[in-house]
Amino acid sequence: MIKPWLLRLHRWLTLAFALPLAVIILSGLILSVEPAAQVVAAKPGSVTAEKLVALLAQHDPEGKARSLSFRAYENRLSIGGVRPDDTIDVDVVTGRELTEDGTVSNLFYYSRVLHETLMLDLGWLVHLSTMAMVLLMVIGIAMGWPRLANTVSGWHKGVAWGLLPLLVLSPLTGLFLAWGISFTSPPPAGPRGAPVSMVDAVRKLGESHDLSNLVWIRGRGGRLLARVVDGGEFRVYAVGEQGLTATSRNWVRLFHEGNFAGIWSALMNVVISIALVGLMGTGLVIWARRRFRKRRPRPTPVLPQAVTTG
């Protein structure tokens, strides 16, 4: 008796959150490609500590830089903190300053803004819609194992159950990130000593890592952190006078962003995103068929004719 009510709740929740969920899922699909783009584009040995130090000397002679980020898929190094409220973008191949935004990096940037705030400072709606997505999956589980068939409904249920663990973990880890839940131990005190300059950080990082795999260097929580692709995994290190200290792995972030196993984890997120697009699309098709299918006209009752006598 409860299954029809669960089905109705499942249907109406989908309709209520269809638009924000579509934006979140499609922007997530685009973002799932970013780790793979970074890994594939990195050319071993193409970026060295000496080259980055020379670029910093050229574009930041006063040593004001507070952050570096490197997008290997555009050969673009962004230096933050040199100019008020702006960054300097540099081509690491030619060394010249780039005055135009990159097409690919812009696509990823605005997709991230859409994914997190719907471009309108609506982070609360993103959280609410993500919770609705988790609830939809819980309701689907509560309705029990489905009968699979080669129909739109059959494919909808088959994909949902076949990828269930990954489909649940994707929005769940997104909520954990939003709520600051990482399941990691408190960060260590980190390397002792005076604050490290950006030039020194680049040199220390270059001693043990190929800087063509650099993702970013930035200050956070009173420490200077560096994120580097290490064996396909996006690892974070604290940089200090004594060298590098590996931070605890934030598996919530690594799974949600799909950057723990290079191309393979990125591909996993692509599959999850496509599956979510398919589930939403087939769910709406199933609802539309139920809602707008033509009803057979009721037969007109034949009234008995009165018998007349001549």
Question: What does this entry look like structurally?
Answer:
By secondary structure, the chain is of the alpha+beta class. It has two domains: 1-44 and 101-184 and 251-291, no CATH class; 47-91 and 185-248, no CATH class. It is 51% helix and 15% strand. The chain is built from eleven helices and eight strands. The chain has an eight-stranded antiparallel beta sheet with strand order 4-3-2-1-5-6-7-8, with helices on one face. Helix 7 (152-162) runs antiparallel to helix 11. It is elongated and about 105 Å long.
Give a quick set of tags describing it:
8-stranded antiparallel beta sheet; 310 residues; single chain; 15% strand; 11 helices
Concise synopsis of the structure shown:
The chain has 310 residues and is α+β, with helices and mostly antiparallel strands.
Low-confidence blocks of residues = none
- Apparent shape: elongated
Number of domains in the coordinates? Answer: 2
Largest sheet: 8 strands, antiparallel
Backbone structural class: alpha+beta
The Cα radius of gyration reads 27 Å
Order of helices and strands: HHHHEEEEHHHHHEEEEHH
Tally the beta strands: 8
Report the end-to-end length measured between terminal Cα atoms: 61 Å
Widest sheet: strand ordering: 4-3-2-1-5-6-7-8
Mean pLDDT: 91
Q: Portion of residues in helices?
A: 40-55%
Strand % is: 15-25%
Tally the helices. 11
